[in-house]
Design a protein that fits this description.
CATH superfamily of the largest domain: Hypothetical protein, domain 2
Largest sheet: none
Bound molecules: iron/sulfur cluster
Shape: elongated
Number of strands: 0
CATH architecture of the largest domain: Orthogonal Bundle
CATH topology of the largest domain: Endonuclease III, domain 1
Distance between the termini: 15 Å
CATH class of the largest domain: Mainly Alpha
Oligomer: single chain
Order of helices and strands: HHHHHHHHHHH
């Protein structure tokens, strides 16, 4: 189905998928629980690499009590920070990035999280995935967060060619299919779908809200 699908048909199906997800998940909330502070989402986004959102949420409850803001983190000892984020994995690198990016946020950006992809990518440890998360959630800009759920499900849905696995390829493909104002929420909803229906091992298609719109491509 997906291989023969015209661009026009795919655009129309993508719009229907967006609508179905909106109906099924009216609240498109970020899976990382933060209080609206951009710096906190920056920290949580960095910790979420190769770690579950649930783990990051738990770890940050304590982390933010010890380091409540960028100023506190900027003057912290990375080794000490590592003790609080150990269970997130890659903790030494992540701790160094948290301290360095907090320092840069204060020294270079006067404590204000930049609102462009280009500037965000200059922060230590920030790649396109985190930058898009920040642009979408904090600045409400069009942004596709090509995380593991997004990559897997977009390919199963046939929105992205099965051969395309690299985050940037998936991001580009979805940017061309999903309306700009829907992109950020679409990604949040895809995460919810990836937990409840379209898991990495075993998809529960019968009860999936996208069942009739999905070619269920094996990936
Ligand atoms: S119908 Fe099945 S394969 Fe398609 S998105 Fe839903 S759970 Fe995933």
């Amino acid at each position: 189905m997906a291989r023969q699908e015209s661009k026009k048909a795919k655009l129309s199906r993508a719009a229907a998928i967006v609508d179905a997800l909106k109906t099924y998940y009216p609240n498109a909330e970020c899976a990382l629980r933060y209080d609206g502070d951009p710096w906190r989402l920056l920290v949580m986004g960095r910790l979420s690499a190769q770690c579950t959102d649930a783990r990051v949420n738990t770890v940050c409850e304590t982390l933010f009590k010890v380091y409540p803001n960028a100023e506190a983190m900027a003057t912290a000892d990375a080794e000490e920070v590592g003790k609080y984020i150990f269970s997130c994995g890659l903790y030494k690198t992540k701790a160094r990035d948290l301290v360095a990016s907090s320092r840069m946020l204060i020294d270079v950006f006067a404590g204000v999280l930049p609102d462009t992809m280009e500037a965000l990518l200059t922060l230590p440890g920030v790649g396109r995935k985190i930058a898009n998360l920040l642009l979408g959630d904090i600045y409400h800009k069009p942004a596709i967060v090509a995380d593991t759920h997004c990559i897997r499900i977009s390919r199963r849905l046939g929105l992205v060619d099965k051969e395309k696995k690299a985050p940037e390829q998936v991001e580009r493909a979805l940017v061309s299919l999903i309306a700009p104002e829907e992109q950020s929420d679409f990604c949040h909803r895809i995460v919810l779908l990836g937990r409840q229906h379209c898991m990495a091992r075993g998809n529960v298609c019968e009860s999936c809200p996208l069942n009739t719109l999905c070619p269920k491509i094996p990936v």
